Amino acid sequence: MSDKQNIYILAIESSCDDTSAAVLYNDNMLSNVVATQKIHEAYGGVVPELASRAHQQNIVPVVHQALAKANIDKKLVSAIAFTRGPGLLGSLLVGTSFAKSLSLGLNVPLIEVNHMQAHILAHFIKEGDKKVPPFPFLALTISGGHTQIVLVNNYFDMEILGETLDDAVGEAFDKSAKILGLPYPGGPLVDKHAAKGDPMAFPFPKPKVKGLNFSFSGLKTSILYFIQRETSKNPNFVEENLNDICASIQHTIIGILMDKLKKAAAQTGIKEIAIAGGVSANSGIRKALQESEIKYGWNTYIPKFEYCTDNAAMIGIVGYLKYLDGKFSDQRIAAKARYVI
Ligand code: KG4
Ligand code: ZN
User: Fold this and answer.
1) Domain ranges of the chain
2) Nearest residue by C-alpha to atom 23 in ligand 1
3) For 282-323, what is each residue's pLDDT tens digit?
4) Within its chain, how far is the Cα of 196 from the centroid?
5) Which residue's CA lies nearest to atom 8 of ligand 1?
6) From CA 222, how far away is CA 15, in angstroms rounded?
7) From the CB of residue 42, how many other CB atoms can be counted at a distance below 10 Å?
8) What's residue 45's pLDDT?
9) Which residue of 20, 242, 277, 283 pairs with 13 in a disulfide if CB–CB is 3.0 to 4.6 A?
10) CA dihedral sign of residues 130, 134, 139, 144
11) What is the second-level CATH architecture of the domain 137-303?
């Protein structure tokens, strides 16, 4: 086992439809390889059975590539970190089983990682002299599976202050895109078209949800009815107005997120605000957050694009932090589809 100054973590992520492996040297990323599964595009969403099969095919080459890119021998690895959950069980099983076997084979410790904690702790991967959020801070975790406002007191002391009661924000983007006939995953495409459109063109109602919780299923329904109504009058409505529709949807979603974030900041008195998860790649939310620095006096933290969507480097940083604390797992550990932070 290595000392606590020179720690090499090999990390594995397989919670959904990205097979990823990374190598970290302490808090520095040496490699972060992601194989995105294209097969799901044809089905308009992730097909769990196909996802686990693709993970099985990808995992060995992806790990091999991560070690080669990091230019280290696997004998140097101090520990194996892996995503235990939350996620699709069949997908998680591939990464979990692989990580367990590799830790046995290399005779190094095993470290289980919560995927949602990892999205938040991705902020602590070293990026030059970029500032990291000081504790306590608020994290808005926005992905294809989750929408949460988390109070982060310390690395492993987190409290969910609010979350979605139905769809996640990434789903809201993807399902809206599907209604518009855009391919899966539609979130990045809505973002792309929104950049060229008028956010005020089509006002959509914001849901009324108590406290710091969210709801996105009503928005999806109102978008569906709106599109059905307009296309019955003009069959070319979507293609003639695609940019404006996307801009209006994005504007509404960002409005919902920012309203709750403002409420959380006011309730807790915390002005250190971070975003995490795949949807933090969205240019609208990044802009809104940057503007809030001047508007509300917040200090905001936005991860590097590569660390926003699913990736193993974020699993590696949690592995490193747990390694320092001696938080290791034993070989009986099992994947967990529902795993609260
Ligand atoms: O965190 P992530 O990679 O996977 C999950 O753990 O869910 O998040 C994926 C989600 C998808 O719903 C995708 O459409 C959305 O993030 N997403 C975006 C953008 N980039 C990714 N949504 C809106 N705008 C983007 N630029
Ligand atoms: Zn994720």
Assistant:
1) 4-125+308-325, 137-303
2) 187
3) 999 999 999 999 999 999 999 998 999 999 999 999 999 999
4) 25
5) 278
6) 31
7) 10
8) 80
9) 20
10) positive
11) 2-Layer Sandwich (3.30)
Q: Which of 88, 279, 338 has most ligand 1 atoms within 8 Å of its beta carbon, as the pocket-test mutant?
A: 279
Same fold, 4-125+308-325 and 137-303: yes
Say how many Å lie between the CA of residue 241 and the centre of ligand 2: 31
Q: For each successive 10 residues of the chain (341 residues), what is the average pLDDT?
A: 81 95 98 90 84 94 98 96 97 98 98 97 95 97 94 97 97 96 94 98 95 96 97 98 98 98 98 96 96 97 92 98 97 95 89
Residue 254 confidence (pLDDT): 98
CATH hierarchy code of domain 4-125+308-325: 3.30.420.40
In DSSP notation, 252-274 reads HHHHHHHHHHHHHHHHH---EEE
Hey, whose CA ends up nearest to atom 24 of ligand 1? Answer: 282
**Minimum-distance ligand to the CA of 142?**
1
Task: Measure the N-to-C terminal CA separation of the chain; round to a whole number of Å.
Answer: 28
- Taking the centre of ligand 2 as the mean of its atom positions, its distance from the CA of residue 74, in whole angstroms, is 27
Candidates 309, 311, 314, 338: which one to mutate for ligand 1, based on the most atoms within 8 Å of Cβ? 309
pTM above 0.85, yes or no: yes
